[in-house]
Design goal:
The protein has about 750 residues and is α/β, with parallel strands linked by helices. The protein contains 27 helices and 25 strands. The strands form five sheets. Strands 6-5-7-4-8-9-3-10 form an eight-stranded mixed sheet, sandwiched between helices. A six-stranded parallel sheet has the order 11-18-15-12-14-13, sandwiched between helices. Helix 7 (about 225-240) links the parallel strand 8 (about 210-215) and strand 9 (about 245-250). Helix 4 packs across helix 5 (about 150-165) and helix 17 (about 505-515) packs across helix 18. The longest helix has about 35 residues, at about 55-90. The structure holds cytidine-5'-diphosphate and magnesium ion. Cytidine-5'-diphosphate (CDP) binds near residues 120, 124 and 125. Magnesium ion binds next to helix 4.
C-alpha cells in the first residue's frame, strides 16, 4: 500500500483540498495520511503530491446507487427515531401527568386558569389534549390559542403540527397580521396573535366557530389580551358551551380568577433546578459592554455543555452585539471553544427563528441573544446560563402630549425572576444580573405595567365602538385606562373622521376598523383614493405604508448611505422608501439587487406581501376603482404625486406634526395636549438635506415615530411644504391663518 504524503501548510479555507484527500483515502485504499505540523489541523493539499485516480465508471455508479439507498434508509430511520423521541418528549412534560385532571376541570368549569412554569407544556400540549378529547366535534369546530407575539404563534404552531404529524397550515395553522396560514374547513387548531382574535369579533361577535379559546401568556397583559378577556366575559354568558382557558406564568393568577367570578386556578407544578443568582458589585455604566464581557467570562471559565441566554432590548442591539461577539471570538480563534451566536426577536424571518431550537453541536456553545420574547413565550432547551442586563423596551404613552415613545426601561422584579428561571430547566444553572442587589430590592417595580395603561388606545376604542359597545367607562377590564387617555383617543378618532362631533362612529370609522392596519394608516390610504385634492396616489401610499411596517429591519448594517446612488436625492424618508420599493420592483424583485444595495431581501419580500394584501383589501372595499377613476381624470398624473402623498399623510397623522419655532421643532398642541420639543433624527433624509444643502428648514414636518435617547428624536420625517395644506386636510385642528387651534 502506498502512503500519500501531503505537505501541511497553514492556510485558511481548505475544504476543497480536504475533500480531495478524503476521496483519495476512500478510493485508493490509502490507510494513512501523514501531515506535517500536525498540531495545525488546517493544511493544504500540495499539488505535487496529487494522486492519480483510476476511474472505472461502473463502480462509481454502483457506489452512488447504494450510497443513495443507504442514505434513504438512514433518513427513514432517523425520522422514525425523531417521531418516537417527540412522542416520548410529550409524555415527559409536567402537564402530561395532569392530563386527565385538566380535562376534567375543563369539563366541569366554563373558565379555567392554568398556571405553570414556563416549559411545562401549556402552550403545546393543552390544545392537543382538547383535540384528543373531542372538543373539535369531528373537525366542525375550532380551538383558538392566542399569543401576544407573532414569533411565538408561528413557532409553536410549527412545533405542534410536527408533534401531531400534520402539515403546518392544514389541521394545525397560525394566523398573524398579514399572514394567514390556515385552511378553511380543515384547520382545527389555530394559533394566533391576540390581536387577530380581536379582529374576528368584527365578523363573528359570538365566535361561533370555536369550541374552546385559550388565552395564552395572559400574564403579559397586552392591550389585545385585556380587551379579549373583557369581550369574552360578556359572550360566555350567551355561549354556555364555549370553554375559556387562561394560561399564565406564575404571576397575577388570582387577579384573573377574581375577574371571572372566582373561577378555579389549576396549578401545574413545574420542575425547576436551583439557579445561583450573581449580582454586580457596582452599577454598570454600559450594560452592552458588561454583557459581552460576561458572555466571554462564562465561555472561558465554565465547562461545556451549557448554553447562554442573554436578554437584550431589541433587534438593532441584538444584531450589533452578535457582530461584536463574533469579531472577538474570531480574534481569540482556537484558544476558546467554538461559539454559535443565534439571535431571536419578533421580526426575525421564520427560518432563522427555528435555529434557536436546533441542538447545539458537541464542543460548541450556543449564545442566544433574545428580546424578552424568551422570558416566557419561548422555551429554548439547553440553557444553563442567563445574562440579564435588566432592561426592556416598552411603549410609553403620554396622553397630555399624545406621544407614544419607545423607551428602554428597567424590568420588574417578576420579569427578572422569570428570566433567571430560564437557567434552571435542564439542571442547576447560573444567572448573572448586570445590576446590583440593592437595585433589585429597592429600585425595581414588583410587576410590569399592563399595556393598556401605557399605550395609545384609539384603535381599541374604535373597535369597541364598532362592536356597539358605547359605555366605555363600564366595559369590564382588569385595569382601566385613565380618563385622559380615553378622552385623548376619542379626540384622535374625531380628528381622523372616525367619529362625528357627537362621538358616534361614522362610515369612515367602520371602514377604518376593518383595515388590517392602525386607524392612522387606514386614513392615509382612504385619503389617497377618495380625497378630491389628494386622490390618485393609492398605489404609492400603500407602498409607503407597507414599508413603514417593516422599517426596522430594512437595511443591512449601516448601509443606509449607499442607497443614495441608486435612488438619488429624495426630499423625505417616505419618498425614499417608495423609491427603494419601486426600484426593487423594477429589478423584478431581484435578490441580487438587494445584495448590491445592502437592503434585506427578506424584509422587502415581506413588504411585498403586506402590500399585496392591503391592495386586495382596498380592491374589495372599492378604493382601487375610486383611485382609477381619479387617475383617469388627471391631465398629468405624475406632476403632483409628491404633494398628494404629503397631504394623505397629514390627514392620517395630524397629531404627528411639528412646527419650527425659535428653539427648533415643537409638536402640535391641541385642546387635550401641549407641545413637545423634538429634533429630527440624523438618520432622516430631512436631516441630511437640511445639513448638506444648508437648506432653510421647512416650517412644518411630519414624523412617524418619536424616540427618546439623549434627546427627543423624530424619526422617518417629511417636510410639509405648504402651510395651507394643514387646514385643508384637517380643519378639525388646523384653522387657516391661525395655525393651531
Ligand atoms: O407553554 P409552556 O411554557 O408551558 O411550554 P411549551 O411551550 O408547551 O413547551 C413545552 C416543550 O416543548 C418545551 O420543552 C419546549 O422546549 C418544547 N418546544 C420545542 O421544542 N419547540 C418549540 N417550537 C416549542 C416548544
Ligand atoms: Mg407557553
Amino acid at each position: 500500500r502506498q502512503g500519500v504524503y501531503a505537505n501541511a501548510k497553514l492556510k485558511k479555507n481548505l475544504e476543497w483540498e480536504e475533500q480531495q484527500l478524503q476521496i483519495a483515502l476512500k478510493k485508493n485504499d490509502i490507510d494513512e495520511i501523514h501531515v506535517e505540523n500536525s498540531k495545525d489541523y488546517e493544511f493544504v493539499f500540495d499539488t505535487e503530491a496529487m494522486i492519480d485516480f483510476t476511474n472505472d465508471g461502473d463502480d462509481l455508479l454502483k457506489d452512488e446507487e447504494s450510497e443513495y439507498e443507504n442514505e434513504l434508509l438512514e433518513n427513514i430511520n432517523k425520522e422514525q427515531e425523531r417521531l418516537l423521541d417527540i412522542q416520548q418528549g410529550r409524555k415527559s412534560l409536567p402537564v402530561y401527568q395532569y392530563r386527565s385532571q385538566l380535562l376534567q376541570a375543563i369539563k366541569d368549569h366554563q373558565v379555567l386558569i392554568v398556571v405553570g412554569e414556563t416549559g411545562s407544556g401549556k402552550t403545546t400540549q393543552l390544545p392537543q389534549y382538547l383535540v384528543e378529547d373531542g372538543y373539535t366535534k369531528n373537525g366542525t369546530l375550532q380551538i383558538a390559542v392566542t399569543q401576544p407575539r407573532r414569533v411565538a404563534a408561528t413557532s409553536v404552531a410549527a412545533r405542534v403540527a410536527d408533534e401531531m404529524g400534520v402539515v403546518l397550515g392544514k389541521e394545525v395553522g397560525y394566523s398573524i397580521r398579514f399572514e394567514d396560514k390556515t385552511t378553511p374547513n380543515t384547520t382545527i387548531l389555530k394559533y394566533m396573535t391576540d390581536g387577530m382574535l380581536l379582529r374576528e369579533f368584527l365578523s363573528d361577535p359570538e365566535l361561533k366557530n370555536y369550541s374552546c379559546i385559550m388565552i395564552d401568556e395572559a400574564h403579559e397583559r397586552t392591550l389585545a389580551t385585556d380587551i379579549l378577556l373583557g369581550l369574552l366575559k360578556d359572550i360566555l354568558l350567551h355561549r354556555k358551551d364555549l370553554k375559556l382557558i387562561i394560561s399564565s406564568a406564575t404571576m397575577n393568577a388570582s387577579k384573573f380568577s377574581k375577574f371571572f367570578y372566582d373561577c378555579p386556578i389549576f396549578n401545574v407544578p413545574g420542575r425547576r433546578f436551583p439557579v445561583d443568582i450573581h449580582y454586580t458589585v457596582q452599577p454598570e455604566a454600559n450594560y452592552l459592554h458588561a454583557a459581552i464581557t460576561t458572555i466571554f467570562q462564562i465561555h472561558t471559565t465554565q465547562p461545556l455543555p451549557g448554553d447562554i441566554l442573554v436578554f437584550l432590548t431589541g433587534q438593532e442591539e441584538i444584531e450589533s452585539t452578535k457582530e461584536r461577539i463574533e469579531e472577538i471570538a474570531h480574534k481569540l480563534g482556537s484558544r476558546v471553544p467554538e461559539m454559535l451566536v443565534t439571535p431571536i426577536y419578533a421580526n426575525l424571518p421564520q427560518e432563522q427563528q427555528q435555529k434557536i431550537f436546533e441542538k447545539t453541536p458537541e464542543g460548541c456553545r450556543k449564545i442566544v441573544l433574545a428580546t424578552n420574547i424568551a422570558e416566557t413565550s419561548l422555551t429554548i432547551n439547553g440553557i444553563k446560563y442567563v445574562v440579564d442586563p435588566g432592561f426592556v423596551k416598552e411603549n410609553s404613552y403620554v396622553p397630555t402630549t399624545g406621544m407614544t415613545q419607545l423607551l428602554t426601561v428597567a424590568c420588574s422584579k417578576a420579569s427578572v425572576d422569570q428570566r433567571a428561571g430560564r437557567a434552571g430547566r435542564v439542571g442547576p444553572g447560573k444567572c448573572f444580573r448586570l445590576f446590583t442587589k440593592w437595585s433589585y430590592y429597592h429600585e425595581l417595580e414588583a410587576t410590569p405595567k399592563p399595556e393598556i395603561i401605557r399605550t395609545n388606545i384609539s384603535s381599541i376604542v374604535l373597535l369597541l365602538l364598532s362592536l356597539g359597545i358605547t359605555d366605555l367607562i363600564n366595559f369590564p377590564l382588569l385595569d382601566k385606562p385613565s380618563i385622559p387617555s380615553l378622552s385623548k383617543s376619542l379626540e384622535i378618532l374625531y380628528v381622523l373622521g372616525a367619529l362625528n362631533s357627537k362621538g358616534s362612529i361614522t362610515r369612515l370609522g367602520r371602514l377604518m376598523c376593518q383595515f388590517p392596519c392602525e386607524p392612522e394608516f387606514a386614513k392615509v390610504i382612504y385619503t389617497a383614493a377618495y380625497n378630491e385634492t389628494a386622490n390618485g396616489v393609492l398605489e404609492q401610499c400603500i407602498t409607503i405604508v407597507s414599508m413603514l411596517h417593516e422599517t426596522t429591519s430594512l437595511f443591512v448594517g449601516n448601509s443606509r448611505d449607499s442607497l443614495k446612488s441608486i435612488v438619488g436625492e429624495t426630499t423625505s424618508d417616505h419618498l425614499l422608501y417608495l423609491k427603494i420599493y419601486d426600484e426593487w420592483k423594477n429589478s423584478n424583485y431581484s435578490k441580487m439587487w438587494c445584495k448590491d444595495h445592502k437592503v434585506q431581501f427578506k424584509t422587502l419580500s415581506r413588504v411585498r406581501d403586506i402590500r399585496n394584501q392591503l391592495w386586495k383589501f382596498c380592491d374589495k372595499m372599492g378604493l382601487v376603482s375610486m383611485n382609477e377613476k381619479a387617475l383617469k381624470e388627471l391631465v398629468d398624473p405624475t406632476q403632483s404625486m409628491e404633494i398628494k402623498i404629503i397631504k394623505c399623510f397629514i390627514s392620517g397623522f395630524p397629531m404627528n406634526i411639528a412646527k419650527l419655532g425659535t428653539s427648533g421643532y415643537k409638536t402640535v398642541s391641541t385642546k387635550n395636549s401641549s407641545g413637545l420639543e423634538v429634533t429630527i433624527h440624523p438618520s432622516s433624509v430631512v436631516f441630511q438635506q437640511q445639513k448638506e444643502n444648508a437648506k432653510k428648514p421647512s416650517k412644518y414636518i411630519l414624523y412617524q415615530q418619536l424616540m427618546l435617547t439623549t434627546k427627543e428624536f423624530a424619526r422617518v420625517c417629511m417636510p410639509i411644504i405648504k402651510e395651507s395644506w394643514l387646514s385643508e386636510m384637517v380643519p378639525q385642528i388646523f384653522k387657516p391663518n391661525n395655525e393651531f387651534n
